[in-house]
Amino acid sequence: MIVIVGLGNPGRKYAKTRHNVGFMVVDELARKYGLAFREKNDYYIAEWRLENKDITIIKPTTYMNLSGTAVKKVVNEKILKNLPESLIVIHDDVDMPVGKIKIKKNGSSGGHKGVQSIIDSLGTKDFIRIKIGIGKDPYQDVSEYVLSQFTSEQRAKIKEKISEAVDSIVVIINEGVNKAMNIYNRL
Fold this sequence. Notes:
- The protein is an alpha/beta fold.
- It has a single domain (about 1-185), classed as Rossmann fold (3-Layer(aba) Sandwich), CATH 3.40.50.1470.
- About 40% of the residues lie in helices and about 20% in strands.
- The chain has helices spanning about 20-30, 65-80, 115-120, 140-145, 150-175, 175-185; strands spanning about 1-5, 40, 45-50, 55-60, 85-95, 100-105, 130-135.
- It has a seven-stranded mixed beta sheet, sandwiched between helices.
- The radius of gyration is 15 Å and the shape is globular.
């Protein structure tokens, strides 16, 4: 069993903001494979089977800073003993240029409150992360920046990188995280 988590904030107000790039990736994954999300407790869930592996995709509805609450419920139910390989979290990263993808195994939250919530809730840093750079504006407060929308130039780049992130998820599932890191961390 593999659990894939896209981080973001629920609701139309946040749908196209930088902080919701994790939601954008899992939405594209669902669209590409014809999956539908349904609401359950503190998250939206879609279930899938790829290469004889059961996969659960979730989008927490608890807002970013409390993402760990929803993730813990799913992890406890599905995969608690198989970390880190069985949990993939997709999120934005302000410390990377717009559109840069970096896959990593475990580590700190890097200041990302959604990731920190997951670490705190699970009591471990041992899970796979797919980080997507959203850049930052040195003249704008980080909180305001992540909750604002991409510029039109950034949107085109992010759309391409969302597709790459979806492809990287499939590589992780089929060939492992090390193979995915070798491919996508170099791009």
